[in-house]
Amino acid sequence: MNTKKIFIILIALTASLSVLAQKPDYQKIKSLKIAFLTERLNLSTQEAQEFWPLYNAYTEQREAQWRKGRKIFGAIKESENLNDAEASDLLKKYIAFEYEEEKLEMTFYQKVEKAVSAKKTMLLIRAEEDFKRQMIRQFNKKKENNR
Asked: 90, 76 in Cβ contact below 8 A?
């Protein structure tokens, strides 16, 4: 592993610990994720030029989709107070939301595969899961230390 990669990893890990020591700052978490993915995917310059615009657009679309979904999830929390017609309407909205999420994800992965390769697309899927797990572990560790 070259010095540049080690340096990126050390910065990402150090920054992630400081991020979790404070109230979550989503910009910092995004920066950490970018560093993490950059190290894990090991993209060539050409691949990076194609990948990052796709990834950034996908991230923006997912965030917009989740903002739409907040109303649905809020209503689901209160679903015991709904009659059957209201529950049916809410269920339709939820299914449509889930469908759009899946469609967005499938389209993104198809575009990424064309831009970088199927193998690097699989590495991306794994790296995103690993990053989530790392963040959860650090959050839980911080939580335990505050007890």
From this structure: yes
How far, CA to CA in Å, does 106 sit from each of 16, 48, 57, 71, 98? 29, 20, 14, 24, 12
72 and 97 Cβ atoms separated by less than 8 Å:
yes
Using alpha carbons only, give the angle 106, 71, 131 rounded to the nearest 5 degrees.
Answer: 45
Place of tokens 């959860």: 136
The pLDDT tens digits of the residues spanning 90-139 come to 999 999 999 999 999 999 999 999 999 999 999 999 999 999 999 899 88
3-state percent breakdown (helix, strand, coil) of the chain, nearest 5: 90, 0, 10
Q: Is the pTM of this model over 0.85?
A: no
